[in-house]
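$ run holo --ligand "iron/sulfur cluster" --emit tokens
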Amino acid sequence: MESGLILGGKSFTNRLFTGTGKFRSKKLISKMLEASGSEMITIALRRVDLTSKEENILEYIPDNVTLLPNTSGARTAGEAVRIANIAREAGCGNFIKIEIITDMKYLMPDNEETLNATRLLAEDGFIVLPYINPDLPLAKKLEEAGAAAIMPLGSAIGSNRGIRTRELIEILIDCCSVPIIVDAGIGKPSHAAAAMEMGADAVLVNTAISAAHDPVRMGEAFSYAVKAGRMAFLAKLTEESKEANASSPLTGFLR
Amino acid sequence: MTFFETIKKFDPEDIEKSIGKMSFVEVKRALAKNKLNELDLMALLSTAAQDHLEEMAQKARSLTVQYFGRTVSLYAPLYISNHCINECIYCGFNRSHTITRKLLTHEEIEREARFLNAQGIRHILLLTGEAHKITPLEMLSDVIKLLRKYFPSVSIEVYPMDTEDYRILKKAGVDGITVYQEVYDTSIYDKVHPAGRKKNYKYRLETPERAAKAGLRYINIGTLFGLAPVRSEAFLCALHAKYLENRYLDTEISLSIPRIRNIPGGYSPDFLLSDRLFVQILLAYRLFLPRSGITVSTRETSDFRDNLLNLGVTRFSAGSHTEVGGYTEDEQSVPQFEISDSRSVEEIVRVIREKGLQPIFKDWEDISQ
Ligand code: SF4
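-- output --
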């Protein structure tokens, strides 16, 4: 059995990360978490209303699930930093997903502002997970800036189009030392399985679960898909290393 | 090309004719596509599309669920003044009407704010007529600061301003505006706005852009159905939204579908928008602009509104009063328009939940300071 994914000193056995947005009822969030076994869930601070108990989304998330507040609504590094600080003060913990979007049409992340925000927040002790357009030089700078993981998009947010940026994400998986968590665009469990099979360390799935007709069941389905994809990746790894270290090389007969 | 130049290119009569020529072949083609162009929009607005409403509705619904999830955002309007220097012939606040004019004091505004906050409302739309002397910029700015103590998001539907003024209001805490062109047909626009500042078509048309340039994050536009031929108005309004969406990528654009209803004694519209055509327009907007918000106000009856919930609506007004001081004042002034859905916030929330949707009260956090 492999050890869990370590992020910010915490170990996560379940590699499916989920989101709180777009459910038809907040009550479904806890049920979905239970069915999927997801151990980390992202939450938009803009939707947290601490002044109203019934409306406060945090009430629907069990204690054993780690909160990943995101900076949805931020357009600059400065705004992202402010949101992160408000989230921390509100008791959402040290994790922060940086989501800086200046394009409301396709919701593409602003890589430059994201890098600036990562620097500032990592320095301030946050466990920073930046959401980016997959780009290797940027990913390297993010690592250096102290990012705990990198979250490249598979395709545009909410598009459900799957891993359209496959080649670019593969480059990140190949070259980065921090975990790669594929975020956005995953529309079906098979997309999630594909990402994991490629070697992603985890996936974040929101809309495809929350907007599903039966989000609880869909959450469970995604959880299986993620496990299957991960297992396939590990199986391939052992296969490759076994073959590479074979005691009698295939060309050993050539003397 | 500016949108004003685009508008000048189009003759509303020609648009009506082109839309009239659309057949079910064009409608089918539009329905099969993911990215719709102007011709597809025409097809969906045509009479030929009337037989395909259900298909349009199914597609609209699934696009809305995909991009907005199973949620609908709530807001409430707050009227603070009905003073107005304009003479829009279709409006109850028109300066030539001898109605009691009223401007709420700070205490009264605060009382209304407290009431709405207690109902759970977190997004507010502040409204006034156009009266620069009675509701000047500085005053609006103070009111906005006051409201921000009660609401994380305040948007305004007041008079059109310069970019610089919008910057000032943004600093005070405003994050969005609603501004309807009322009517895109330039000659009809001229007729229904006989006097006052509002006569300037171009200045009004470019208001959303001045707001976007000032950094307001949310802009809601619309045409007031009833004043001009319906299909060409819907067409131009959707084009306007698309233009804004492409040009101001960092601004969220949304659309409203206000219509003048036939009210005895009220302004009687020349071009009535039927319920059926209303729905068709809403669906055409959704298919043409899958990511834009669509707002429905309490102008519509409760039954009709509830049925729209599953068709692509993303923003709903609740507990609305359209008279000044309507929530807490005993003495009621004249409303701007008759509201048809007078249910409480609680009742509306219950219906939204029954429809399998999550009502969202708060969807913004102040990060400006
Ligand atoms: S529509 Fe607006 S500008 Fe025109 S009369 Fe009414 S309040 Fe005044």
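-- notes --
Residues 5-235 of chain A form a domain with the TIM Barrel fold (CATH 3.20.20.70).
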